[in-house]
Amino acid sequence: MNDRTPEQPADLVARLRATFRSGRTKPLAWRTSQLRRLRELLTTHGAELAEALHADLGKSSTEAFRTEIDFTVREIDHTLDHLEEWLRPESAPVPAHLGADATAWTRFDPLGVVLVIAPWNYPVQLLLTPMLGALAAGNTVVVKPSELAPATSAAVARLLPRYLDTDAVAVVEGAVPETTSLLAERFDHIFYTGNGAVGRIVMRAAAEHLTPVALELGGKSPAFVDRDADLSVVADRLARGKFLNAGQTCVAPDYVLTDPETARALEPELARAVEALFGADPQRSGEYGRIVNERHFDRLSSLLDSGRTVVGGTGDRATKYLAPTVLADVDPKAPVMQEEIFGPILPIVTVAGLDEAVDFINDRDKPLALYVFTESDTTRERFAGETSSGGLGFGLPLAHLTVSDLPFGGVGESGMGSYHGRYSIETFSHRKAVLEKPLG
Known about the structure:
By secondary structure, the protein is an alpha/beta fold.
């Protein structure tokens, strides 16, 4: 390859497909070696990646390691510990009419060439975690980092070829034209994380080749606060979950649902929780991030008039700082309630009680996550049985994402397919049915 001339998408995919067809990626030893090399990259160059994340999103080093670098290392370690077990064939019972000598089982076959398209908000974790799952399943992979996180994209593009098999893993940088060119090629699976508008574009492109897709989208993830909850604890956990990465998290609590009395009592607790996290002036805090660009800053700023400001409500476009903001008395028809916020604004919407809260959620698109703060088993059971969401968290937002033995994914408008741990192997493999009957 000529380093000065980028490889054309058709040539790139053909080269990786040739590697796959050679059988090189299928042995367990190859798969585990790639994961160990990726782990070495992250542990050796963690500080460099953290600097890139700070340049792109203002992330502190602590947050960069906790939510991106160390997160991915833990996923690698979990996969290395269990991969051989996950890949073992699973026997299946055989009906009597086939005879006692017939046997049946399933096995995981890798799919081939996988395309991973990553977003900008967690540009290390959300690029490398699906990639490592695809490699663990025995595939070759093309990864497309987000152009909206240019420092991280450049770092990943520079480092991955130094550590991973370049005949099996390729990085394509760029923006819409490069992504469009990639989507014109035939892949064996496409894994996209982002918004629903682009998700539809990905699905249309994939349909041309009947390529399966996993779409990790977002949506307005509600948080219901029951009147029996400890509001001090609730406020602390809501603030941590909402304002992580300046609210630019797909599973962040998007809005709070509660009754009017609880809402009034929750307001000062949220103000206290914000100050406890980031101090009296969050703009000076080294632990509070920034909005990714001016376009998103302007979009978010236009939502600040959607309710009464409890805390925050200010910003600085020049530095892309938007204060952690809580809005009260928010009408369900207000602008802030019409789309996923994806920023540090937390609206409080009041409902009469549990029944109205369940109806409110069910009347809208199925969210990526739903959080419930209550001491009532009955309330928990009602949310579990009467609502639909990608994930459900009782008492703690975001945490389900960190459990490798849980599938992470959406439903309906919030996405399709899931990954993490064994579920990544299932996503990036074909479970093949096998039956054997002796010729005798």
